[in-house]
From TrEMBL:
Transmembrane segments: 43-64, 76-102, 138-157, 169-191
A Pfam family assignment: FA_hydroxylase
InterPro entries: Fatty_acid_hydroxylase, Sterol_Desaturase_Related
Recorded GO MF terms: iron ion binding; oxidoreductase activity
Domain of life: Bacteria
Alphabetical GO biological process terms: lipid biosynthetic process
Compartments reported by the entry: Membrane
Name recorded for this polypeptide: Sterol desaturase family protein
Domain Fatty acid hydroxylase positions: 179-307
Cellular component per GO, a single term: membrane
């Protein structure tokens, strides 16, 4: 497939889409009904439906009976860890195998033309981004994911979290389920801004940003503190009138939903003539520039807080202007301190 119909490629081989990143059209004023109706299926398909269906499957075939959940037992917690680990291996591994090992679509639609396996770095364990990312995903990521999930299931089973039944509260739970991506977006933005503060960035978030050229296994390549904060999205369901299935959906949305933003390709080729949008460009720009796009554009939080980069020359200019303004402020502060020191 000719990716140059959809974007451009520079001399290094890096690919950039023609279309800029846009927040969901529900925020446009005045409202654009046609745009909203065109966007609405993308709110569900394909990712949100997959993650929601996985939660139903977990509840039906993985989660033990409620009487078992009333006490934390190593047996069922290890079983839950094993299922999470296998699902991560299969889901993440499918993208890695298709795009990065077999390279079935080459570098078509790939933002950064280089592949991580070609770039050894001492920033990673064994100087390998893939090995480092996989180890962090399973040793810390899936462990903390499972631990918090088990804690929440225990809370539901013991009445510490509001558990509504689908039979008695279908509309309330439908609204909560629809809000899962919104909850994730707000939580992710707030946590992301927090861990970009200098101290937490240096000791925590820099681990994730070692993957400047992200690939599927980069998705959960985090410091344990970041894993704890990231999967803390489950705790909203201690307050919300919810259901354990929706809580699992929230966890799976975080655990499996990190893939689209880190896949490194704008579109995934399915067959000879079908493309699936990854919606990865906004987060790829964050990995490239570090201080833009702390959210994923479902809600225009970055626009509201002045950190938006849509991939356009205008977005680049806004980012550079913000950098210059910050440098000028730091230089002025340094000059002021130097002048004060000279007079003392």
């Amino acid at each position: 497939m000719d990716d140059l119909k959809f974007g451009t490629r520079n001399k290094r081989g890096d690919w950039t889409p023609h279309a800029t990143v846009q927040p969901a059209p529900i925020w446009q004023m005045p409202p654009q009904l046609k745009a909203v109706l065109h966007w609405l299926p993308h709110y569900f398909l394909p990712w949100n439906v997959i993650f929601a269906a996985s939660a139903v499957a977990y509840w039906a075939w993985v989660i033990p009976p409620v009487e078992v959940l009333r006490s934390i037992q190593i047996g069922w917690v290890l079983w839950l860890y094993a299922v999470n680990a296998v699902c991560v291996f299969l889901f993440y591994g499918a993208f890695e195998l298709h795009l990065y090992v077999l390279r079935r679509q080459g570098s078509r639609f790939k933002y950064n033309a280089k592949f991580p396996s070609e770039q050894k770095s001492k920033a990673f364990w064994f100087e390998s981004q893939v090995i480092d990312s996989m180890l962090r995903s399973f040793l810390s990521g899936v462990t903390i994911w499972t631990g918090l999930e088990a804690l929440m299931l225990w809370a539901y089973a013991n009445g510490y979290a509001p558990w509504l039944s689908f039979a008695d509260n279908p509309w309330t739970l439908a609204l909560v389920a629809l809000a899962v991506p919104i909850i994730h977006e707000v939580h992710f933005f707030l946590v992301h801004r927090l861990i970009h503060t200098p101290f937490l960035y240096k000791w925590v978030h820099s681990v994730h940003h070692n993957s400047v050229n992200p690939s599927p296994w980069s998705s959960l390549a985090m410091h344990p503190v970041e894993h704890l904060l990231y999967f803390g999205t489950a705790f909203y369901h201690l307050i919300l009138p919810s259901n354990p299935i929706i809580m699992i959906y929230q966890m799976n949305f975080a655990g499996f939903g990190a893939i689209p933003g880190h896949v490194g390709f704008d579109k995934i080729e399915v067959g000879d003539d079908r493309l699936v949008d990854s919606h990865a460009y906004a987060h790829y720009l964050h990995h490239k520039y570090f201080e833009v796009n702390y959210g994923d554009a479902l809600i225009p939080l970055d626009k509201w807080f002045g950190t938006w980069h849509d991939g356009s020359p205008e977005g680049e200019a806004r980012m550079q202007a913000r950098y210059r303004k910050r440098k000028e402020k730091l230089a002025a502060r340094k000059a002021q301190l130097d002048a004060k020191g000279a007079t003392e």
